[in-house]
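WARN no homologs supplied; continuing
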Amino acid sequence: NEQEAVAALSSTIASYVQRWPSQYMWSMKRFKTRPAGEERWYRRRKKKKG
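OK structure emitted
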């Protein structure tokens, strides 16, 4: 069952993140795009001049 496999994988990743939070890619923006009209999940960064 796909849902069970995804749930098991998600649970395993969550347990690793809890045990070793410094090793997780916290800065990774997994969901960069959203459907039209949906609110952004991440704030836009201002571009540095220069």
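The mean pLDDT is 85.
OK
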